[in-house]
Design goal:
- There is one protein chain.
- By secondary structure, this protein is α/β, with parallel strands linked by helices.
- It folds into 2 domains: about 15-195, Rossmann fold; about 215-330, CBS-domain.
- It has 14 helices and 11 strands.
- The strands form 3 sheets. It has a 5-stranded parallel beta sheet, with helices on both faces. Strands 6-7-8 form a 3-stranded mixed beta sheet.
- Strand 10 and strand 11 (about 320-325) form a beta hairpin.
- Helix 1 packs across helix 7, helix 2 (about 40-55) crosses helix 7 and helix 3 (about 65-80) packs parallel to helix 7 (about 170-190).
Length: about 325
């Protein structure tokens, strides 16, 4: 038997879509209100002080919250950690059972509570005061216990919840989440956090693959198929077969790339019944496409598609240092 006391009659599809759009409009109004807060001198000043504290903290940023604010705090922690700010999430329920021991005077505590009166946060506030640990608060109530206890108080704008009963945290948590992202992005810019740094924290999965550089996937050393400019067509063909990359580089005496010979070139040459003892210089492509070792593999793959080629030679300061095949990029998950 259903536990719902009042069963609402089935509404039309159009009505349901209107409800969904209305909730999004309410959420958007909350985000607009948050953006407007940054134009307020006190809010902007508190935000800048928080940025300064986080940048200068010797330990970690401890993010905490209970209920829906706790879920937002977890997400905020994950975003900060992956973008260069050492952060951990502290569950208030566990704090009073030993986990307060992870908080040190070198840390900074950031506490999320929409009402500012979550009793579960009390032990953390007391601990911060006892051991002089800096405390920052994110709350919508300026006169709340948490706001009054904090060294820095970030006051969220008053917003209307999208819930028809104005009870379920909806818009308020959306605003909290957006503020967390704004905080993380601001810290990224302050730290000069680059794509290289991002890759260090995201080595696996599709995201990591998009940040891999050519240097990490290229063949190098003896695995690079190459011959000198005075090699014969036969020698180039043998070297291309040995390399198993579908082509060979042609280099001068200083290892500079001067040409390329691919299996497509070989097919066209054999169709014309050329003498295999002739110089490869007659058959090579004299303007071969190349790529730098520090170029993103995803960009190299895009260039391969645009140029309809399967193989790039890798050059640094005009010298041949590697070769990368499209299959190597695809096998590594680059897309």
């Amino acid at each position: 038997m259903s536990t719902v006391s009042n069963i609402v009659p089935f509404k039309s599809g159009g009505h349901i879509v209107e409800t969904a759009c209305r909730s999004l409009a309410v959420a958007a109004s909350g985000l607009n209100a948050l953006e407007a807060q940054f134009a307020e001198r006190d809010f902007a000043g508190a935000f800048l002080r928080l940025i300064g504290l986080i940048m200068n903290v010797r330990g970690r940023l401890i993010v905490t919250g209970i209920g829906k604010s706790g879920i937002v705090a977890r997400k905020m922690t994950a975003t900060l950690t992956s973008t260069g700010t050492p952060a951990i999430f502290l569950h208030p329920a566990d704090a009073g059972h030993g986990d307060l021991g992870m908080v040190t005077p070198a840390d900074l505590v950031l506490m999320l509570s929409h009402s500012g009166e979550s009793t579960e946060l009390g032990p953390i506030i007391q601990y911060c005061k006892r051991f002089a640990i800096p405390l920052a608060a994110m709350t919508a109530q300026s006169n709340s216990t948490i706001a009054q206890a904090a060294d820095i108080s970030i006051l969220m704008p008053p917003v209307q919840e999208a819930c028809p009963n104005s009870l379920a945290p909806t818009t308020s948590t959306t605003v909290q989440m957006a503020f967390g992202d704004a905080l993380a992005v601001s810290l990224m810019e302050m730290r000069g956090f680059s794509a290289d740094d991002f890759h260090k924290f995201h080595p696996n999965g599709r995201l990591g693959a998009q940040l891999v550089k050519v240097r990490e996937l290229m063949a190098s050393g003896d695995d690079i198929p190459k011959v000198r400019g005075d090699a014969t067509l036969l020698e180039a063909t043998i070297e291309m077969t040995r390399g198993r990359l579908g082509g060979t580089a042609i280099v001068d005496n200083h290892e500079r790339l001067i040409g390329a010979f691919t299996d497509g070139d070989l097919r066209r040459t054999l169709t014309a019944k050329q003498n295999l003892t002739e110089s490869i210089g007659q058959f090579m492509t004299v303007t071969p496409l190349s790529v730098g070792p520090d170029e993103l593999a995803s960009e190299a793959l895009r260039r391969m598609h645009d140029s309809s080629v399967m193989l790039f030679f890798v050059c640094e300061d005009e010298r041949l240092i590697g070769a990368v095949h499209m299959h190597d990029l695809l096998e590594a998950g680059v897309a």
